[in-house]
Design brief:
Elements lengths: L3 H14 L9 H8 L3 H13 L3 E4 L5 E4 L8 H9 L26 H19 L2 H14 L1
Helix pairs in contact: 1-2, 1-3, 1-4, 1-6
Length: 145
């Protein structure tokens, strides 16, 4: 399950995808439109800024913009940045591997084998789905309705 913070980060990024690259969105606009607490959103956008995903502009036309193209930012990248490892078991994590203390042999662990398949499928979807894909599929859903 993803955290509320990760969900808010993705919603803020999707909102930024919907504005032309020459325009920016103020924190107050994103907060209001996406129903995200403003103070929490400030922290999230600061993390995304440090990671090089968004940048802030100052002045009358200031606000936040995507620093990278929406087709270059994946859901997997954002989730790892905000929530950490995606793996449901520590022995399956790529970035935070830790042997399970109650497991005698990872090679024969039935639980690990099942969750390894789940993890691979999840990573495949998250690491190949971009912000652009999410916005595009939402737009297509509206047009088909």
């Amino acid at each position: 399950m993803i955290s509320q913070k990760a969900k808010y980060a993705l919603r803020a990024l999707v909102a930024l995808c919907r504005v032309p690259p020459s325009e920016s969105l103020m924190i107050s606009e994103i907060s209001r439109e996406q129903a995200i607490p403003k103070k929490f959103l400030e922290q999230i956008l600061l993390e995304l800024k440090r990671a090089g995903i968004v940048m802030s502009r100052r002045g009358r036309l200031g606000g936040y913009v995507l620093l990278r193209s929406p087709d270059q930012v994946t859901f997997g990248e954002v989730l790892r940045l905000i929530d950490g490892p995606i793996a449901p078991l520590p022995c399956l994590s790529k970035i935070a591997y830790r042997r399970c203390t109650d497991c005698a042999d990872e090679g024969t662990c039935e639980i690990r084998h099942v969750f390894a398949r789940v993890t691979l499928a999840t990573r495949e979807v998250l690491d190949t789905t971009t912000l652009a894909d999410a916005v595009k599929s939402r737009t297509e859903d509206v047009l088909l309705a």
